[in-house]
């Protein structure tokens, strides 16, 4: 995993560990399900989308040679 994705992943983990859903004893995976959507801060959702785009960019052949640099 490129270092850029590692940084975003760690940011997502840190954000989720501070969320109410995880503090109640749920796992991070459970917190991203629809029934817990109101307990996850919007900041964590935006970080999750960024992480998804970073991982997706790893599979995109056009970006493979250029890296995950912003367009």
Automatic annotation (TrEMBL):
One Pfam annotation reads Pet191_N
GO CC terms, sorted:
mitochondrion
Q: Alphabetically, which GO biological process terms does the record hold?
A: mitochondrial respiratory chain complex IV assembly
- State the UniProt keywords alphabetically: Disulfide bond
Family from the record: Belongs to the PET191 family.
Name listed for the protein in its UniProt record: Cytochrome c oxidase assembly factor 5
Q: Which organism is it from?
A: Mortierella isabellina
